[in-house]
Amino acid sequence: MLAKNGANLIVAPSAFTLNTGKKHWHTLVKARAIENGVFMIAPNQWGTNRNNRSTYGHSLVVDPWGDVIADGLQGEKVIFCEINLKNCHDAQTSIPTLNHDKNFEEKIDKKYNIIIN
Predict the structure, then answer these.
(1) Cα torsion angle, 73, 78, 82, 83, sign
(2) Radius of gyration, alpha carbons of the chain
(3) Taking a C-beta distance cutoff of 8 angstroms, is the pair 64, 38 a contact?
(4) With contact defined as beta carbons under 8 Å apart, do 34 and 65 qualify?
(5) What CA–CA distance (Å, rounded) separates 69 from 92?
(6) How far separated are the first and last CA of the chain, in Å rounded?
(7) Domain 9-116 sits in which CATH superfamily?
(8) Coil, strand or helix: which one is 20?
(9) Which of 56, 55, 60, 57 minimizes the C-alpha distance to 11?
(10) In whole angstroms, what is the distance from residue 52 CA to residue 113 CA?
(11) Which residues contact 100 (CB under 8 A, 6 or more apart)?
C-alpha cells in the first residue's frame, strides 16, 4: 500500500533472531524491495539481549531490483550510501507488480460469521 501511494523508500526496522536471520533475512528484504519496486532500508538489531536472545544484525539497504547496496554485517555501526530514487520508477514500470496485485478487503458475513475476500 505504501508503494501504491507513491513511497519510493520503505523502512522496516527488525529484530530477527540469529538463526532465523541467517536463513531468511536477506531473502525477505530483497523480496519486499522487488515486489514493491522501492528501496528497502532495513535496520536489524545485533547482539545478545538481557533475555539471552541473539539477533542477527546485517542491517540492509536494498535497491528496487533486489541488489544489496549496503550490508551492516555484525556489530553496531552507521551505514552511509547513496540511492537514486529514479530507480524506483524504472523498476516499477519494468516489473509492474503494483498494477497486477489484488486489493483484499475483508467483508464479514454476519449471518454465517465468516470472512469473505
Answers:
(1) positive
(2) 17
(3) yes
(4) yes
(5) 18
(6) 17
(7) Carbon-nitrogen hydrolase (3.60.110.10)
(8) helix
(9) 60
(10) 43
(11) none
Tell me the domain boundaries of the chain. 9-116
**H helices within the chain, ranges in order?**
18-20, 26-36, 86-94, 97-100
Total Cβ atoms within 10 A of residue 17? 13
What totals of helices (H) and strands (E) does the chain contain, helices first?
A: 4, 8
Looking at residue 101, what is its pLDDT?
74
Amino acid at 5: N
- Cell 524506483 belongs to residue: 88
Ordered mean pLDDT values, 10 residues apiece, the chain (117 residues)? 91 94 96 96 94 94 97 93 92 85 64 62
C-alpha cell belonging to residue 29: 528484504
- Residue 30's alpha-carbon distances to 25, 42, 66, in angstroms, are 9, 10, 5
| Cβ count within 10 A of residue 83 | 16
